[in-house]
Amino acid sequence: MAASGGNHGAAVAYAAMRLGIRATIFVPQVTAPAKLDRIRSYGAELIVKGALYADALHASQDFAERSGALQIHAYDQPETLLGQGTVGSEIEADAAEIDTLLVAAGGGGLIGGIAAWYEGRIRLVAVEPEGAPTLHNALAAGHPVDAPAGGIAADSLAPARVGALMFPLAQRFVERAGYQPAPGERIGVVLCGANTDAIDFDRAGG
């Protein structure tokens, strides 16, 4: 059982399908239709609950308390962070020459896992929507705090706050000052979220 903006839910649904067990996935109303279709295609029970991810998360927690279902958190669980950290391993294997990596930060699982892998060997920059400065506000406060979730085009980037497990990693390894690329800097960008596709990129470029 999981709450998700869509991608984590699809991953849990797929794993459950492969294992032959039942999965229930909670998603918010902003989840892209393509993600809903993907979750359903893996045979999971899909429950759309609330306007944003935080609403779906609360609903999933209530469900888990009533049913005893195993919860798989989208970003604040050791196993999830370990899995997301493998992205850092793959990036280093494919592009060991980069100096700086830009990563989207919603709940922080992806950037937290990548930070755990690199441990400061490269500059790590969090990218957030201005309307949902979840990690920015947490770093400013010194601990995870609730943040607004307005103006969100990317449905996966609207949690109430960053995860408690990733936050110490962000404090140690994620850049805090406003990022400006330096001449000759070798930059990598993690494109994630599956909130767009090649057709949208083509339209933007044309």
- Apparent shape: globular
The structure class reads alpha/beta
Count of DSSP E strands? Answer: 6
Q: What order do the SSEs take from the amino end to the carboxyl end, as H and E?
A: EHEHEHHEHEHHEH
Q: What percent of the residues sit in helical stretches (DSSP H or I)?
A: 40-55%
- Gyration radius, in Å: 17 Å
The DSSP helix count reads 8
Classified by CATH, the class of the largest domain is Alpha Beta
Which spans of ≥5 residues are poorly predicted at pLDDT below 50? none
Task: Walk me through this protein's architecture.
The chain contains eight helices and six strands, in the order βαβαβααβαβααβα. It has two domains: 2-67, Rossmann fold; 78-198, Rossmann fold. It has helices at residues 7-19, 33-41, 53-67, 78-94, 109-118, 134-141, 167-173, 198-205; strands spanning 2-3, 24-27, 45-48, 100-104, 123-127, 187-189. The strands form two sheets. It has a three-stranded parallel beta sheet. α1 runs parallel beside α2 and α4 crosses α5 (109-118). Helix content is 42%, strand content 11%. The chain is globular and about 50 Å long. The relative contact order is 0.15. With 206 residues, it is α/β, with parallel strands linked by helices. The N and C termini lie far apart (41 Å). β2 (24-27), α2 (33-41) and β3 form a beta-alpha-beta unit.
